[in-house]
Amino acid sequence: MIAWNRGEQKAISTAKQAEARRNNGKLSNGPVTVEGKATSSRNAVKSGFFSRDPLLPGEDATAFTAFRDGALTELCPVGFVENELAARIVSAAWRLRRVPAVEAGIIEWQMWAGLAKTSRKQAVELIHESLIDCEEAEDPEECREYVEREAEAFARMASPELALGRAFIRPVA
């Protein structure tokens, strides 16, 4: 059976299907290979602030090592407790350096998303339809400008520079 929820198709399962899924799930022991375990260990990573490893995929390991070594040199920890605290300071400081990039990515992503939505709305208003054929618009040139602006906004939203910001956003459809 198929149900509609906020424009999305969602399957409603029967009790028998739900039971079959539970039984199949019991057969899984999770990832077996080293690569599979490494991949699944990052399934829920968003900001990486609470992850075991302070380094996120794509971050420069050499830069982190230099950062860590410099901080430990200045902190001069002695003994187990000081070394543990110094390691926590380094980890938290590295993670906190990421926050401005996240904030900027979120703000810029939202800006481009708003522009895309507005451009789509303006283009649709010009032709009074949900399918855009600018040749049928009252002002085809203006319609094309709105469609181009929407495409530009969506391209910018998908850019690698905004990847970190996108990780924090769950866009609504």
What's the gist of this structure?
This protein is mainly alpha-helical.
Describe the structure.
The protein has 7 helices and 2 strands; from the N terminus they run ββααααααα. With 173 residues, the protein is mainly alpha-helical. Among the domains are: 61-96; 99-166, no CATH class. The radius of gyration is 24 Å and the shape is flat. It is 60% helix and 5% strand. It has a two-stranded antiparallel ribbon with strand order 1-2. The model is unreliable at 1-9 (pLDDT under 50). β1 (2-5) and β2 form a beta hairpin.
> What proportion of the residues form beta strands (DSSP E)?
under 5%
Q: What is the C-alpha radius of gyration, as a whole number of Å?
A: 24 Å
Detail the poorly predicted runs.
Answer: 1-9
Q: What strand order characterises the main sheet?
A: 1-2
Q: Helix and strand layout, with pairings?
A:
Elements: E1 2-5, E2 8-11, H1 15-27, H2 34-40, H3 61-75, H4 79-96, H5 99-127, H6 140-157, H7 163-166
Antiparallel strand pairs: 1-2
